[in-house]
Amino acid sequence: MTVSLLLVDDHRMVRESLKRSYIEWGFDVIGDVASAEEAVPLAIAHQPQLVVADIAMPGMDGIEACERIANQCPDTRVIILTMHGDQESLSRAIRAGASGFLLKDCSIDELMTATRLAASGETVIAPQLKPHLLAQVRRPNSTMTATSTTTSHRITPRETEVLQMIADGHSTPEVAERLFISQKTVKNHLASIYQKLDARDRTQAVLQSVRMGIVTLD
Questions:
Q1: 141-211: CATH class
Q2: Cα angle for residues 68, 18, 60 (degrees, 5° grid)
Q3: ∠ CA(123), CA(126), CA(132), 5° rounding?
Q4: Segment 66-93 mean pLDDT
Q5: Is the torsion defined by CA of 100, 105, 111, 114 positive or negative?
Q6: Between 138 and 46, whose confidence is greater?
Q7: Burial of 51 by CB count in 10 Å (0-12 exposed, 13-18 middle, 19+ buried)?
Q8: Tens of pLDDT along 109-129?
Q9: Residues forming CATH 3.40.50.2300 domain(s) in the chain
Q10: Rounded to whole angstroms, how far apart are CA atoms 99 and 105?
């Protein structure tokens, strides 16, 4: 199935190069714009499956655009691209609801593969940024309350298994294969987990569940 995609980057050469690559890989590029201000209304109007956005742009940055799109387009997933991955930007992107955070020095093949994974529901983060993600998990969370502890008790043993495998980096097909269940069942478990943890996606669910002591992150 063709995946619809919106490109956002203020560098014309980068934007046009990415557009050609995405078209060659079979994506349906519904638009390519130079600013987040253009991207948000376009995303709301067309509801693409994916938005791939640069982080550093004049005016509104890619992360703020991500948050607005996530709020207005619940079925649209956003991948953030950046030249420099730092812990604060990764943290902001996760809170904004990004489904991917990739460095611009990745290869075209890596970007296309990551985009496909994001379209299928996976969360994709550049390997170089995993230490930042680990630091984000280990950061004290002042918002945790007794309610969080109560929530952890509502996570079923099977959901805990699924969460732990997601935390270990397994994809939906891998979780299904290892637990001898269908991919649809895995997705149903994830939907239940998101609701219980008030999480938008896998990354937020893993961060919250690690902080609550439900799973561990090596």
A1: mainly alpha
A2: 25
A3: 95
A4: 86
A5: negative
A6: 46
A7: buried
A8: 999 998 998 888 888 888 777
A9: 4-135
A10: 19
